[in-house]
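Milestone M4 deliverable, item 7.
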Amino acid sequence: MSDVDAMTSVEARLMAAALADLRSDMSEMRQSLNGVQKALESLVRMDEQQNNQRQAISRAFDEISKERDRRETMESRVHLLEVDAPSYKELRRWVIGGVLTGLTLMGAAVFKLLISDPLDRGYTRPQAQVIQQQQQQPQQGQQRE
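Output delivered:
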């Protein structure tokens, strides 16, 4: 008898049972590996999402930094304007005062021109004498009466 024939049915049954256990262990390992594969895929997705979030946060902080720089620049410009503001106020007062003085002088000149005596209107001397004589003649006629 050969070795195969020498195997008894008990040994064959034991080997069949061991083989069945080995198959079930292999099946469990396959299921475990599938679970590990799914978990690994999930980790890869999560890592991608975290990388995207890191990049977004980095961009946000860069924008915040740029805005801070812009704000600081604006604050320095406003500070310079605030420092110069009193001189601008004084200059504005002088300009307004000058304009009002000029308008007042022009108004006075127009007023004087409107109510002034004919002698002040720039007539020549003989014309002024004629006007004076004309004004005096009615007055002399009133005195004779």
